[in-house]
Amino acid sequence: MTSFGTKVVIVLLILLTQGCASTPTKKLEVAENAKIGVMFRTNENPLYVHVGTTMFQNETRFLDESWELEAYTIKYLESALKPDVSVELINSEALTSANQIVDAGWSSLTLTKELEPELSKLASERNLSVLLIIDKYEASVEANSTVTAEGYGVFTRCMLGICHAEPLRNVAVRVFSLDPAMYITSGNYTNSVFQALVETELPNIPEKISPEAIEVVKNEFFTIFSKEIDYALERSGL
């Protein structure tokens, strides 16, 4: 390759790298006495995923209990936001049934275009300024694993009798402006550095996991989830 050709390639690589870099997060300006909507695209009950030494020991099921994610989120937001900002639980069939609510853009995520009318409708009918959506997504349960899951709950791993448990946290706190309808930012595990491992005594038979072990993981999940909410609020300017 000639010297000129080499320079062209280098310039193109630089442009591509800059084009793929993350753009600065847009900051919201919320008026006094604003109303913020919150909706959930998550599993109602916490998920339990176990990965054993062999694939035949793997198990995925829902726990027969509620972690009251909705109530916790609303209470936490009410304490984290300005006193004059109110929080309202929102239900939207269009948003709940959508396959996805964000698309991958050139340099950042964007609101799925087909959902723009629904967000504009919520702004006018419910007098909302901002919408937070707790959104589950599918991802590996741990690094380099072929086992995937979506949502939140408990993940346990046993390898030759050595076991540990940690929160399953494949959920993102997504922030949307409603007027105009657009995606603002997300707070989630993949773009934060909150990673905590909970060491606990686990049985070799995963379905016999103790309520005490589940409680430890649950508390750790909410500690991390709270930080993810804070991260989303801070990045969006709320």
Provide the fold topology.
Layout: H1 3-20, E1 35-41, E2 47-51, E3 59-62, H2 69-80, E4 86-89, H3 93-97, E5 102-104, E6 109-111, H4 116-125, E7 130-136, E8 138-140, E9 148-159, E10 162-178, E11 181-188, H5 211-236
Parallel strand pairs: 1-4, 1-7, 2-9
Antiparallel strand pairs: 2-3, 5-6, 7-10, 8-9, 9-10, 10-11
Task: Provide a compact summary of the structure.
With 238 residues, this protein is α/β, with parallel strands linked by helices. Helix content is 30%, strand content 31%.
First-residue to last-residue Cα separation:
52 Å
Globular, elongated, flat, extended or rod-shaped: what is the shape? elongated
Provide the helix percentage: 25-40%
> What's the helix count?
5
Would you state the CATH class?
Answer: Alpha Beta
Mean pLDDT: 80
Alpha-carbon Rg, integer: 21 Å
Question: What amount of the residues lies in strands?
Answer: 25-35%
**Stretches with pLDDT under 50, minimum 5 residues:** 3-24, 190-197
Quick one: biggest sheet? 9 strands, mixed
The domain tally reads: 1
Content-based structural category:
alpha/beta
